[in-house]
Amino acid sequence: MFSRTRLLPAIAMAAALAGCSREGELVVDQGVGITSVLSSCPSVGVPDYTGDVTAFRTAGDRTATNLDMTASITNVRSTCDDSGAKVYSGVTFDVIARRMDTRGARQVTVPYFSTVVRGGSAVVTKRVGNVTLNFADGQERAQASGKAGAFVDRAEASLPADIRERITRRRKAGDPDAALDPLADPQVRAAIQRASFELLIGFQLSEDQLAYNATR
């Protein structure tokens, strides 16, 4: 039931990191004022339909009068240590919840997942954790924090030398491939996709909860 961030393809991910280049990162200048960066650090996001969750008092009744609680993932923040052979990416986030019936103190535990995805579709690892929300008597809203982290092999998150050379090689007017965009080369695009990793977080939803998020 949580949906906030659409997954970014490898090229779009690099463009989103423009202006953040550091030593060891690949900077691609396309000659039209656009500079994109491919980092060994995974991009971080919340997949569609997994950033919110809605609970109902009675199963099968999705009317507003049967609503029990809603919660959302927000304030997603990431850090990355790419100084070693294993790149470590850490994520922290907040869960903000609202309940309809404020009578009495109540504790609610909401499961969430963290997964590393390679090339936009291949799941490398997945872990499930929990965030516990505590509502005080008479309190409508509650907030809690969660965290996740993962290691990525730096070699797998780096482009082969020949692909890097193909992208960064300076081309002169008159060269046979001077007018060709190296990023349009299928081999280059495939290599960039293989080297792209994402660390994704979201609520661990049931099929019914996920379907509800996708159709509401």
How would you portray this structure in words?
The protein has 216 residues and is of the alpha+beta class. It has 4 helices and 10 strands; from the N terminus they run αβββββββββααβα. The protein has helices at 10-16, 161-168, 186-194, 207-215; strands spanning 26-29, 35-38, 43-45, 52-56, 67-81, 86-99, 106-118, 122-135, 141-153, 197-203. A 4-stranded mixed sheet has the order 3-10-7-8, with no helix packed on it. Strand 1 and strand 2 (35-38) form a beta hairpin. It is elongated. Residues 1-36 have low confidence and may be disordered.
Uncertain segments: 1-36
Total beta strands? 10
> What's the overall average pLDDT, rounded?
81
How do the SSEs run, as a string of H and E?
Answer: HEEEEEEEEEHHEH
Strand content: 35-45%
Which geometry do the CA atoms define? Answer: elongated
Number of helices: 4
| Helix share, percent | 10-25%
Distance between the termini: 9 Å
Main sheet characteristics = 4 strands, mixed
The secondary-structure class comes to alpha+beta
CA gyration radius, whole angstroms? 21 Å
| Lateral arrangement of strands in the main beta sheet | 3-10-7-8
